[in-house]
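Structural prep section.
Before we set up the soaks we want a predicted structure of the protein with zinc ion in place, mainly to decide which crystallisation condition to try first. Input record follows.
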Amino acid sequence: MSTSILYHAFEIREYVYMRTRHKDGSTVFEVERGDLRRLRCPQCRSYDVTRKGIVVRRLRMEPIGMRQNFLEVSIQRVACAACGVTRQVSLPFADPRSSYTRRFERYALELSKVMTIGDVASHLGISWDTVKEFQKRYLRKRFEKPKVGKLKLLAVDEIHVGKLTFLTVVMDLKTGAVVFVGDGKDSEALAPFWQRLKRARARIQAVAMDMGRAFIHAVRRNLPEATIVFDHFHVIKLFNERLSQLRRDEQKKADDQGKEVLKGTRWLLLKRPRNLDDERNEAERLREALEANQSLATAYYMKEDLGRIWRQMDRESAAFLLDDWIKRAVVSGIGMLVRFAKTLVAHREGVLAYYDFDGISTGPLEGMNNKIGLLQRRAYGFSDMEFFKLKIMALHEATAVLIG
Ligand SMILES: [Zn+2]
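Run finished without errors. Recording the tokens verbatim:
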């Protein structure tokens, strides 16, 4: 090893190589300060300091081949006249109090792009928590406070985390980036976000959301200029929930009569027809279930028609379809459809407002929901909510994606 290699290959600046020791399968490089620069206080940057002895710190650095490497740094302590405190001078290649060089941290992050946290930890011989902390620091720097001044079109959505916890997620519909994650699912969840928008003087044009009351009030109050849009994704999501409930109710009736045909059809009802699996006979099973239950069949086909409202050329055709749907739902006499029709009547303007904003598409929202589902299955979200939120905020950026 040499000062030059340490400098060029490992970015160990301002320190000179002294000697190498080999110990327990790892290598230790001792370095000392090169005295190229004047000493200064790490806190206030003052040069008015006096030397107060040396401390030796050991830092983990990148491996060479399979071997673990350490840097043993003799660090000058200085007493600062201005602060009146004695501290270690700052190192150009490691953060204060860290046991790792910045390069080592960056190396672990690079590996994180292709390996899970567990993989990186075992490869480098460090703990799972350490790798997670590296990721967290990086994610915080990049995503904690996104710029919100230029936001125009937003989507608000709530997600489950585990059984009891809810998060409220705000997405920039132009970029697909998650720009805020709040705690809970009521209007309080968004309070810090409104503050941020206000400070940045953002002028939001439209917000896509579900037809739940909490967010509607919050948006009306905090963004009086913005149009509320009930998009395809949110409306169909609600319809699917009601459809599942209808199936459960009908199932119960069928059980009482000793019929079995609705068993296991929940997912078939929620699937898009083109996604039905032929090998598992799904289309056939769905057909049988629908034939056996008229209410369920009607609701199922009404879902298809409902979706078409967001696929029209213009607002007029959509309005025609929407009103026609509402009429047919009421006439059906099926409680679930009648109630849904009432909801649509109450939110008609918001549904049709979809056609006033080109940029609102449901794709990014659906994609985000799927990815969040994937994050959750990795389960680390529950032990560290801040980390989980940061992971959600990093979702859209392929380059920033850290696996696992
Ligand atoms: Zn000072």
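Observations: The chain has three domains: 3-99, 148-204+212-227, 232-346.
Flagged for discussion at group meeting.
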